[in-house]
Amino acid sequence: MDENRKVRVRFAPSPTGGLHLGGVRTALFNYLFAKRHGGDFILRIEDTDQTRYVPGAEAYIQDCLQWCGLIPDESPAHGGAYGPYRQSERKAMYRQYAEQLVADGYAYYAFDTSEELEAQRKQHPNFRYSHENRLELRNSLSLSEAETRALLDGGQSHVIRIKVPPGETISFEDMIRGRVTFDSSLMDDKVLLKADGMPTYHLAVVVDDHQMAISHVFRGEEWLPSAPIHILLWEYLGWRSQMPQWAHFPLILKPDGNGKLSKRDGDRLGFPVYAMNWQDPKTGDLTKGFREMGFLPEAFVNMLALLGWNDGTERELFSMDELVARFSIDRISKAGAKFDFEKAKWFNHEWIKQLPNQALMPQIMTELAGHGIDADEKYVDTILTLVKERLTFMADFWEQAAYFFKQPEAYDLAAIQPRWNDEKTVFFRDILTTLAAFEPWHRAELESCYKTAIQASGMKMGELMLPLRVMLVGGKFGPDVFDIAALLGKKETLERITKGLAAIVA
Ligand code: GLU
After folding, report:
1. pLDDT tens profile 39-76
2. To 5 degrees, how large is the angle CA 359–CA 364–CA 365?
3. Is residue 13 in contact with ligand 1, taking CB distance under 6 Å?
């Protein structure tokens, strides 16, 4: 790495829909690298393909970065010294570079209509516009200068294509893969500037990475085949010495390791693949996201970081700051990383346990409000401490703790009725009287009071603990039963024993 060069990396998504977790991981790795090296993390919206533009997708990307805590130093929303950060707003700038390439002999005008190209594709199933056939097609290389001029002056629709030379070896040093080599004879003459004056991805990405002084280009493996075109452009535009370093991240694979994880796999296997819910504005189709499924951003980010990276130890739990302190590109593996939803859930569970109650409270209060409950925060805080260990998702809180907020609507009678007898009925009638007079209503004192009563009855401990639990919570679950009784308070506990007993002996 050039020590003197300021680290500037970019996340450059196209606003075409929801953000796949692979996209968020690309953003994350870029962010971590930037922060690790005191550099800048830039969000650039690559919206030059008007046919793929989807309204709402850009705002979604920004929300997503915000949710994950990947706040750009420069972006369409934050501004910056290298703006604008939306390629559509930079449109006017690209043509001059394409024209410069034509003037320097590295690119050419192509006038072929889409019908002509379609006919070529029909005739030659493997049609590629390249050094092999460019002289047989309609472009400024096959036509005379005068013909070309006439077509341009007559306003003939045209594109500008790169003139890829045959027989060259194009190579670069990928920070993850090492030396990567391409044979230029196999490459096609990609379009650089479209008929509508918009640059293609290839031209825009190189011009912008240069204008924005990007030091490192980190992106998904699917962009590797584009790298040789970009390298030629860096060279042809006279910028080779300022070319960024590159790394292409491994794919995120399906759980069985067979191929890239797609949105369809998520639908098929029942887990999210997008970071947040995405509603397609055209079809109205809703694709579920990690956020809405109940993932904490800390867990989501931690899980993503470990998909293809580790710090060289067995450690798996890292906060964002810890990731920043440890991140390095050379610890990213070349091989694809299998996505494992059970593991993702494990991260969430661990993060729920790890975060202070205060950090989880707003979500819990919203969850409770959704069930029509307006509870006291201190009460909720104590309950959260009791049930935290049992939560995989925040939404599990209600399932695990609803009985703290409302009396059971049903009882697991099958768990206790078969072993019920009159002696137990008498025990519970007596305990109601005992507890009504009992003070102080604290956990330890309640336990010893209850256990003393069991001993006096001559029955076994186990026989009378489960019924109490079922009366208080409705079933065979929940934390320590005396913790529950202490929290519910005397009045509520007595009411529940009375109601539970009536249900059992009915
Ligand atoms: N616009 C490309 C994308 O949608 C960016 C690829 C790159 O980072 O060069 O991912």
Report:
1. 999 999 999 988 888 999 999 999 999 999 999 999 99
2. 105
3. yes
Q: How far is the CA of 223 from the centre of ligand 1 (A)?
A: 7
Say which residue, 21 or 1, is predicted with more confidence. 21
Sign of the Cα torsion 471, 448, 489, 480 reads negative
30 lines ligand 1 (CB under 6 A): no
Please report the pLDDT score of residue 51 as a whole number.
85
Active-site annotation holds for 263? yes
State the distance from the centre of ligand 1 to the C-alpha of 13, rounded, in angstroms: 5
- Alpha-carbon distance 76 to 74, whole Å? 7
Mean of the pLDDT values across residues 9-17? 96
Average pLDDT over residues 290-316: 96
pLDDT in tens, 445-499: 999 999 999 999 999 998 999 999 999 999 999 999 999 999 999 999 999 999 9
CA distances, 382 to each of 100, 377, 390, 479, 488 (Å): 69, 9, 14, 12, 11
Residue 3 has pLDDT above 80, yes or no: no
Query: Using CA of residue 46, residue 51, residue 55, residue 57, what is the dihedral sign?
Result: negative
Residues 304, 407, single domain; the answer is no
Assess whether 238 and 320 both reside in one domain. Answer: no
CATH code, domain carrying 245: 3.40.50.620
Statement: the pTM of the whole predicted model exceeds 0.85: yes
Q: What whole-number distance in Å separates Cα of residue 498 and Cα of residue 432?
A: 8
* pLDDT range class, residue 1, cuts 50, 70, 90: low
CA 11 to ligand 1: nearest atom: 8
Q: Judge whether 307 lies within some domain.
A: yes
Range of the domain at 141: 92-175+179-192
Please tell me whether residues 208 and 291 are part of one structural domain: no
Q: Which two tokens mark 79?
A: 């501004």
The two tokens of residue 62 are 């920004």
Instruction: Compute the distance between CA of residue 123 and CA of residue 127 in angstroms, rounded to an integer.
Output: 8
Q: Which atom of ligand 1 is nearest to the CA of 23?
A: 10
- Ligand 1 pocket member 19 (CB < 6 A): no
**How far is Cα 99 from Cα 270, in angstroms, rounded to an integer?**
50
